[in-house]
Specification:
4-stranded parallel β-sheet; Rossmann fold; binds guanosine-5'-diphosphate; 17% strand; alpha/beta; 10 strands; 51% helix; binds magnesium ion; 369 residues; single chain
């Protein structure tokens, strides 16, 4: 696994999410630097912090520096030059995760489009600097080359867009292939750091540590899961991310395309989040799932990390989310294994009711006729 020094905001939510993004992208965080402000002109951080970072970076020799904010090309260049390391900003990191999570032809195109868009914004900035004559030969490129580069990106984006327009048919073929396998499918959805991968490993009986490179969510991983002798396929998905830039939303959604065709969605909710975080994340998950065309009755609301809270606190939060009356809700701990058997039972019950409700519908239709 590649190692990283992480620079993020001085806030628990930000630190947890940023660490989660790093681990999903396949980086082991060897040191964290937190700051209140990450948008200083030259390096994003102050000169004093840079000095400290130079010393730490020299000592720990990480493969990359991950900067949990958007960097201008000049800032990225200044940091990388001072630290002699590759620097990934927040958006580049997210794009790496999407790239690893994209499995269908369409989602690969969507991710490529977002990557080009990322490049284009930076090319524009270089054009601007070159025009102002402010940084001639900035990063070794002159104005002419920057123009050519910029136009090339625009061209490639156009090509991908027209490919995407034609890709609708392929999507349906993809789905048929999966159906033919004959398994019922379960997908894990939820925010980064809610515990999807831990739960995935727990339910499938994986004993390796969840930070082990092979078993972290490098792609939309799928494994077999048996509930009462019945085999299922269970898939871990790319997590929801807070503050996702608008231009990445299509790429993100396309990595979640699977959710439309899956029989059960385990929506993993970190019940240890603050009440305001919970509400924000929950409504954002529900909105996206509905935009994807997911039917609500396939969703199992799985409140994870219950080991960190008392029963009363959990109940209070369930009330707060208006889930009190919902029968498809269960609190679990992916860490201690609490209620995992019950979760599997609940899945089985829902699958059975799905099997049952289909013939019933036909009957009703017949009666109606
Ligand atoms: N206390 C506690 N921590 C958990 C639980 N499940 C996951 N975690 C921790 O939460 C962090 C994120 O988990 P991970 O499975 O990588 O989340 P993902 O981003 O949704 O795949 C890790 O540090 C886990 O050890 C749980 O049930 N209880
Ligand atoms: Mg994960």
């Amino acid at each position: 696994m590649n190692s990283a020094i992480l620079i993020t905001y001085d806030q628990e939510d930000s630190i947890n999410e940023a660490k989660g993004l790093c681990s999903t992208a396949g980086y082991e965080v060897v040191h964290v630097i937190t700051q209140n402000y990450l948008q200083k002109a030259k390096y994003g951080i102050s000169g004093g912090v840079l000095e400290r970072l130079e010393e730490i970076s020299e000592r720990l020799r990480p493969d990359v520096i991950i900067f949990d904010e958007i960097l201008k090309p000049s800032q990225n260049y200044n940091l990388a030059t001072a630290l002699h390391r590759e620097v990934l900003d927040r958006e580049a990191l997210i794009l790496e995760i999407f790239e690893k999570g994209a499995s269908s032809a369409e989602s690969k195109l969507q991710v490529k489009l977002a990557q080009l868009r990322y490049e284009m914004v930076r090319a524009k900035e270089k054009v601007r600097l070159a025009n102002m004559g402010e940084q001639p030969g900035f990063m070794g490129i002159g104005k002419f080359e920057v123009d050519v580069y910029y136009n090339d990106i625009k061209h490639r984006m156009q090509t991908i867009k027209s490919k995407l327009e034609k890709s609708g048919k392929q999507r349906d073929l993809h789905r048929q292939g999966r159906k033919r396998l004959g398994f019922k499918t379960i997908s894990l959805a939820g925010y980064t750091s809610s515990g999807k991968t831990t739960l995935f490993n727990k339910t499938t009986g994986e004993t390796k540590t969840q930070s082990d490179n092979l078993f972290t969510t490098l792609t939309t991983t799928t494994r077999r899961l048996t509930i009462n002798q019945e085999p299922f396929l269970i898939a871990d998905t790319v997590g929801f991310i807070s503050k996702l830039p608008a231009y990445m939303i299509d790429a993100f959604k396309s990595t979640l395309e699977e959710l439309k065709h899956t029989d059960i969605i385990i929506l993993v909710i970190d019940i240890n989040d603050s009440v305001s975080e919970l509400k924000k994340k929950f409504s954002s998950c529900m909105r996206t799932l509905s935009e994807l065309g997911v039917e609500q009755d396939k969703i199992v609301y799985t409140l994870n990390k219950s080991d960190l809270l008392s029963k009363e606190e959990i109940k209070r939060k369930v009330d707060f989310l208006n889930l009190t009356e919902n029968k498809k809700i269960i609190s679990v701990s992916a860490k201690t294994g609490e209620n995992i058997t019950e979760l599997k039972e609940l899945i089985k019950e829902i699958i059975e009711s799905q099997n049952y409700s289909k013939p019933k519908k036909t009957q009703e239709a017949e009666v109606g006729n």
